[in-house]
């Protein structure tokens, strides 16, 4: 556990004061470190008047739900799991540059229903100040629906979040960034349930092989594997390489490739037609 500087502890007090002023809140909780710190602060101040809400859908990997339950057990906060299905939204399935806007609109409207049902003061998310540097349609949806971002209000960047989470002994303080499974499908390629399932199973296989950060980009049947640059050398093991290729082909991929540039955020964000890089709002 690292020490928190006086400045960082002061910021944490500011974060707690934000929740004290709210009186009650719903936390859009993904199990990532950003929303975890938000929930930790909210629950510390508000107790059961802070409710974590996790939306489970075809775009949310099972492995992330396990992390959600683990972190909730550590913090002790109440959790409500709700079901949603973005594949019922035509604008989402179309998979254009506004896909995340439609996804987050669906989520926050669902949370608004819970907010009204329970009489909670606000809905908050895990957006931090570093996120504001990217083009993130999901943030636009949050603002349009009145969702607050306490980490932004208190001035937290990603590095400070991880440092404070370590200080608070949160087990996921160094958890790699995650993103919904739809981010593995290139822009302009319609999102299907089969593609999401194939990607989820493929990434689970690679995690089982010992990789710490994994993306399997699904280019219409071609698996483009991204891992941390330092882990690319693991593919030099012929048995591991053959095993991975065989198992991914059994999932339905016709070809299996390894991207020599390694993992990088948003690398599937380009149009099938133009191949022009898109925003960096996805992981």
Give a topology summary.
Elements: H1 6-22, E1 25-28, H2 33-46, E2 50-56, H3 62-75, E3 79-83, H4 90-93, H5 99-118, E4 122-124, H6 137-144, H7 150-153, H8 158-167, H9 193-208, E5 214-219, E6 222-227, H10 238-250, E7 255-258
Helix pairs in contact: 1-2, 2-8, 5-6
Describe this entry's structure for a reader:
The structure is a single chain. The chain has 283 residues and is of the alpha/beta class. The chain folds into two domains: 6-167, HUPs (Rossmann fold, 3-Layer(aba) Sandwich), CATH 3.40.50.620; 181-258, GMP Synthetase, Chain A, domain 3 (2-Layer Sandwich). The chain contains ten helices and seven strands. The protein has helices at 6-22, 33-46, 62-75, 90-93, 99-118, 137-144, 150-153, 158-167, 193-208, 238-250, and strands spanning 25-28, 50-56, 79-83, 122-124, 214-219, 222-227, 255-258. The strands form two sheets. It has a four-stranded parallel beta sheet with strand order 3-2-1-4, sandwiched between helices. Strands 5-6-7 form a three-stranded mixed beta sheet, covered by helices on one side. The two termini are 27 Å apart. Residues 271-281 have low confidence and may be disordered.
Q: In a nutshell, what does this entry contain?
A:
This protein is α/β, with parallel strands linked by helices. The chain is built from ten helices and seven strands. The strands form two sheets. It has a four-stranded parallel β-sheet with strand order 3-2-1-4, sandwiched between helices. Strands 5-6-7 form a three-stranded mixed β-sheet, covered by helices on one side.
């Amino acid at each position: 556990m690292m020490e928190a500087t006086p400045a960082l502890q002061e910021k944490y007090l500011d974060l707690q004061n934000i929740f004290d002023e709210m009186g009650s809140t719903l936390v859009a909780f993904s199990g990532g470190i950003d929303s975890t710190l938000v929930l930790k602060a909210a629950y510390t101040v508000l107790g059961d008047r802070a409710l974590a809400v996790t939306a489970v859908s075809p775009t949310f990997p099972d492995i992330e739900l396990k992390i959600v339950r683990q972190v909730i057990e550590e913090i002790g906060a109440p959790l409500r799991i709700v079901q949603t299905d973005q594949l019922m939204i035509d604008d989402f399935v179309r998979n254009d540059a506004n896909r995340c806007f439609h996804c987050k609109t669906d989520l926050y409207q669902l949370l608004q229903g819970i907010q009204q049902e329970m009489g909670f003061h606000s809905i908050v998310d895990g957006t931090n100040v570093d996120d504001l540097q990217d083009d993130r349609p999901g943030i636009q949806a949050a603002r349009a629906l009145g969702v607050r971002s306490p980490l932004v209000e208190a001035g937290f960047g990603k590095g400070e979040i991880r440092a404070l989470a370590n200080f608070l002994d949160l087990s996921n303080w160094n958890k790699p960034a995650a993103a919904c499974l739809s981010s593995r499908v290139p822009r302009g390629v319609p999102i299907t349930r089969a593609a999401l399932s194939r990607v989820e199973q493929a990434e689970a296989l690679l995690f089982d092989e010992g990789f710490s950060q994994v993306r399997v980009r699904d280019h219409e049947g071609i698996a483009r594997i991204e891992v941390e640059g330092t882990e690319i050398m693991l593919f030099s093991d012929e048995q591991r390489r053959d095993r991975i290729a065989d198992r991914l082909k059994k999932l339905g991929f016709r070809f299996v490739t390894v991207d020599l540039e390694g993992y990088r955020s948003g690398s599937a964000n380009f149009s099938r037609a133009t191949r022009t890089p898109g925003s960096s709002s996805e992981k």
